[in-house]
Every structure is written in structure tokens, then in C-alpha cells.
Amino acid sequence: MGNTYCVFGGCIDQASVGVIERWGRFEKLAEPGLHFFNPFAGQWLAGVLSTRINSLDVKIETKTKDNVFVQMLCSIQYRVVRQNADDAFYELQNPREQIQAYVFDVVRALVPRMNLDELFEQKGEVAKHVLEELAKVMGEYGYSIEHILMVDIIPDPAVRKAMNEINAAQRLQLASVYKGEAEKILQVKKAEAEAESKYLGGVGVARQRQAITDGLRENILNFSNKVEGTSAKEVMDLIMVTQYFDTIRDLGNQSKNTTVFIPHGPGHVRDITEQLRNGLMEAASANLEAN
After folding, report:
1. Cβ atoms of 98 and 92 closer than 8 Å
2. Contacts of 16 (CB under 8 A, 6+ apart)
3. Residue 135: is its pLDDT beyond 50?
4. Terminus-to-terminus CA distance in the chain, angstroms?
5. pTM above 0.90, yes or no
6. Contacts of 30 (CB under 8 A, 6+ apart)
């Protein structure tokens, strides 16, 4: 409903406190409710103060220790202390301007001691310091400072652009380091895989050759035992001729092969056989000398 009053009485609402004077001098505070005044005795309602929390936004421009100009947006929540409402009514003509002046004074005395990075990191400490100083001063005038929030810190646009560029350069540098490490690991793993592949390929070739050797030995022995009058050399020649023709057949069956020129004829087969036999004999001789 709000505060309603006349010469003989008035009603003070819940979130307010009235100031009653007698002959121009403060007499008492009027609590919420209905009050009657005696105008013939000089008593009247001089004014009404709200005890609700008020908010004041203050924009402060100041300079940091590293000579960067910044704008700080500070939000102050304050209220009238009910028990000291007479001080708030009589002592201050314009409390909002008084609060703003004290905030300017405290912030401009504290921020120039900090670098820009420190200001961003310690803005809570700045708000706490302002709250302590402001509460001590405004408490004498009947006001309570409830909260102070440093809502925003706005550096000069050129400084913000430079800070963003520095941050972007640092992130690109870090990304390059990670990319280089990833490529290094990839190359190492690729080399390890290639080495392992060659090793396993060598093992497979060795086993294949060992199996071929064992198979040839077994075939030669079986053929010599089953066919009387044949020597190991004759059996070996027969096997070499068979493999020679098998090779020619495989080359002819593969459609993707290009033209291949190979010596062909009984004499050439005999030459290949002698070369293989000489290689095996030299290898056997080398093994005997080593032992």
C-alpha cells in the first residue's frame, strides 16, 4: 500500500522507517504501523526512509601498474540501518554520490599497485578491500554495505586485441609442439613396424628355404631307395628339371606378367643344375671348416 500520512497521523509500511520531529528537532523513529501526531505540540512526520537493499553501479576508469587503462564496473548493494535511520536522514544529502566518491578513491588507490594480470586474478581481493573501507565510513552515517561485486574489468580495445593475439600465438606454438611429438611417435612406430616386418619376413624366407631343403633331401632319399641303380646326382637333376618346367608353367599362367626372357634348352638346364650343386657343395664345405 505504501506510506500514507497526514498532519494528524500516518501509516509506515513494513520496509520503511519514519523520522518524527518536534518543533524542527528530531524526537524519535517511527516503526512500521499506524502513528498519530500532535501538530499543536509541534510534532510531525519529517520523512520516511526505505530499509530495502539498494543497488548502485559505479564505472571507474583507472590505470594499472603496467600503464594499462581499464574500466571497472562495480556493483554496490547497500541499505539503511533501521536503528541508525536518523543518522542516514540528517547526515547525508546524497548518499549515492558519497558512496560513489569513496569507491573511486579506494579503487584508484589500490589498482595502480597491480599489473593487469594480477588485477584479473585478484578482483575479489579488490572488492573485499573496497567493502571494508566503505563499510567503515558509511557505517558512521547509518548505512550498511551488504555486498560489493566487481562485475567486469574492461581494458582498452587495443590491449584486448594484443592479449588475444598473444594467447592465440601461445596456443599455436603449443599445438605445433604436440603435432611434432605426434609425428615423431608416428615415425618411430612406423620404423619399428617396418623392422619387425622385415625380421618376420626373413624368418619366413629362412623357414621356407629350410622346408624346401628338407623336402628335397627326403625326396632324394625316397627315390634312391625305391629305384635301384640311381644316384643322388641323377635324382637331383630330375628334380631340378621338374621345378624348371613348373616355373615356366607358372610364369605362363599369370596374365599380369610382362615379357620375361629366360635361357631355355637342355644345356641351360644342365648349367643351372651345376650352379646349384656347386653352391650347395661350397656351403657344406664352409660349414665343415667352421666346425
Report:
1. yes
2. 3, 32, 48, 49, 50, 51
3. yes
4. 119
5. no
6. 10, 12, 17, 18, 19, 20, 45
